[in-house]
Amino acid sequence: MKINKKIVSPIIFIAMYMVYFFCITKYLYNNDLLIKLNSITASNVSIKLLDDFLTSLFIVIIIISITLIRKQSLSRIGITKNNSMLVFVLLAIYFGIFFIKGDFSLIGIYKCFYYLIVVSFSEELIFRGYLFTSLDRELPTYLAVIISGMMWGAMHAFIPIIINNYSVIGSINAICSQLGGGILAGGLFILIYKKSKSLIIPIMIHAILDFVGALF
Length: 216
Description:
Elements: H1 5-30, H2 45-69, H3 84-101, H4 106-136, H5 141-155, H6 158-164, H7 168-196, H8 200-214
């Protein structure tokens, strides 16, 4: 049976990133270097930036760099100028929420950056722009949705596993509990991505939902 490298390679690449994410996050947590959003101060914000770069933004830079090195358009990973007016409207809504909340402290400003760039941009680029798009070229769309959604969902269990020091069985249960939500939510963002033909739209919607959710 011939192995399709165009299917296996992106899965292995993201699986390696997931292992890396778990290990680096565990290391940061065990050494009291994992800074919580509500604990950000002028003295530790540089550590928080390093945390977020090492856990999320680093892999984003790698994906974008590989795309450019191969002389491929960024549209290959969903970065397009489509629906620019809608992007502007969603940006206005996002920053409107920030100004309405009125938290202009260091924590408030960092949260605005965090949910837009560290969480939404990173997750959408990694799991939808790169992983889903790569698989969707070689597999039926529903399989690409399931695989990318399961991997994205599994990632959401890692921090609770680390913080609560779950056993192997507890860790497996925590991961399994996130798979369904990952597929459903991931499928919704993929639908928006395919309809809009721009990854920026689900990035903005993702950011707005997370930012609003963090306010309550």
